[in-house]
Automatic annotation (TrEMBL):
Location of the Nuclease SbcCD subunit D C-terminal domain: 267-355
Keyword Disulfide bond: no
Calcineurin-like phosphoesterase domain segment(s): 1-218
GO BP terms in the entry: DNA recombination; DNA replication
Annotated family: Belongs to the SbcD family.
Known function: SbcCD cleaves DNA hairpin structures. These structures can inhibit DNA replication and are intermediates in certain DNA recombination reactions. The complex acts as a 3'->5' double strand exonuclease that can open hairpins. It also has a 5' single-strand endonuclease activity.
Protein name per Swiss-Prot or TrEMBL: Nuclease SbcCD subunit D
Organism for this UniProt entry: Streptomyces mobaraensis (Streptoverticillium mobaraense)
Nuclease among keywords: yes
NCBIfam families attached to this UniProt entry: sbcd
GO molecular function: 3'-5' exonuclease activity; endonuclease activity
Keywords: DNA recombination, DNA replication, Endonuclease, Exonuclease, Hydrolase, Nuclease
Summary of subunit composition and partner proteins: Heterodimer of SbcC and SbcD.
Entry-linked InterPro entries: Calcineurin-like_PHP, DNA_Repair-Maintenance_Comp, Metallo-depent_PP-like, Mre11_N, SbcD, SbcD_C
Length: 385
């Protein structure tokens, strides 16, 4: 059976205030063309269909258009909600859509109920695990713990229990939206940390032939059977080196997995350039970036006058300006933001406590800070449901 694995469309998202709706429409047209050209048997969409819980009308219209075009191919689609989606909103009309071959899986209680497809070699059971916010779904799926690993393990227990009752030789596929250990993150994914720990081990998917993952925006192979498709478009300059693709997965009769990457259309290349302003304006090696979306990091010790206007004269699509002046670490003007770079919210909060009173928090205080940060994040998630 041939599967097309994609995720993280983020319909409605912009790139540094540049609208991407036309680029997203071009990607979806490319997806439909790929389904037809490569004789795909099923399309897997592993979450984050929209960029936010209440998407703009134009994004909803584009989604509706995409569903109609996919349904017209006659190829089944299995789609889950991600952490950016409102599961309840995305799941509206799931029963009716299922009759047209578009199977929405947004209810955690349905983790163990697959979409069953067949080919010449027998059945393939496709299980959709929507994004599982631990604090909101723990009791629903009878998880034995409070973190991501616990709720995902509980969902997989349901998958394995259902699979055990199916005929021998039934192949299996899971769609999940999670941060799996070994995956490389970028700047454009929303933090899903619980208790300071977000990653789950890839072994959690044991017992199934293929795990089609969403959440991380870089296409990557965790194991031969556990893969991220990545987002079809770049949503931050940290993705400048990404090759944006979908996975074309062939699932053999014995459950063996082989994969091929299908490139997605690129609306405009990304470039990150760094140096003093005059150097960036004069360096002939940068000619190749003049048509790219550009993030310029200026290292001038003193902020130059009107830097964006001057950069735009050479790089008309410059979108982001970062100031990172060349200064000694002990210089009092050194950027506070530089000192915070790469640190989590919890680490920043703990450092603030140490700065204010001269010593860092003890174990009980660290637990209290972690609980407070998790409470805020969960409250935000509840507001989006």
């Amino acid at each position: 059976m041939r599967l097309l694995h994609t995720s993280d469309w983020h319909l409605g998202r912009s790139f540094h205030r540049v609208g991407l709706l036309d680029a997203q429409r071009a990607f979806l047209a490319h997806l439909v063309d790929t389904v037809r050209e490569h004789a795909v048997d099923a399309v897997l969409v592993a979450g984050d269909v929209y960029d936010r819980a209440v998407p703009p009308l134009a994004a909803v219209e584009l989604f509706d258009e995409a569903l109609h075009r996919l349904a017209d191919t006659g190829v089944p689609v299995v789609m889950i909600s991600g952490n950016h989606d409102s599961a309840r909103r995305l799941g509206v009309g799931a029963g009716l859509l299922g009759r047209s071959g578009v199977h929405l899986r947004t209810d955690p209680a349905g983790c163990g109920t697959p979409v069953v497809l067949s080919d010449a070699h027998g059945d393939v059971a496709l299980y959709g695990l929507p994004y599982l916010e631990p604090a909101l779904v723990r009791t629903t799926i009878d998880a034995r713990g409070a973190g991501h690993a616990a709720v995902l393990e509980a969902a997989m227990d349901r998958v394995r229990a259902d699979l055990a009752g199916r005929p021998a030789g039934t192949r299996s596929v899971v769609l999940a939206h999670a941060f799996v250990a070994g995956g490389a993150a970028s700047d454009s994914e929303r933090d899903i940390t619980v208790g300071g720990v977000a990653a789950v081990p890839p072994e959690i998917f044991h017992g199934v032939d293929y795990a089609a993952l969403g959440h991380l925006h870089g296409c990557q192979t965790i194991t031969d059977r556990v893969r991220y498709s990545g987002s079809p478009l770049a949503y931050s300059f940290s993705e400048a080196t990404h090759r944006k693709t979908m996975w074309l997965i062939d699932l053999a009769a014995d459950g063996t997995v082989t994969g091929e990457r299908i490139d997605c259309p690129v609306p405009r290349p990304l470039a990150r350039i760094r140096g003093r302003l005059d150097e960036l304006l004069d360096d002939p090696a940068l000619d190749r970036h003049e048509d790219a979306w550009v993030e310029a990091t200026l290292t001038d010790p003193v902020r130059p006058k009107d830097p964006m206007t001057r950069l735009a004269a050479r790089f008309p699509h410059v979108l982001s300006l970062v100031l990172d002046p060349d200064r000694a670490p002990e210089d009092p003007l050194a950027s506070y933001a530089l000192r915070l770079r790469g640190r989590t919210d919890r680490q920043i909060a703990e450092d603030f406590v140490a700065h204010v009173r001269g010593e860092g928090p003890d174990a009980a205080e660290r637990a209290l800070l972690t609980d407070a940060l998790d409470t805020v994040r969960v409250a935000a998630a509840e507001g989006e449901r």
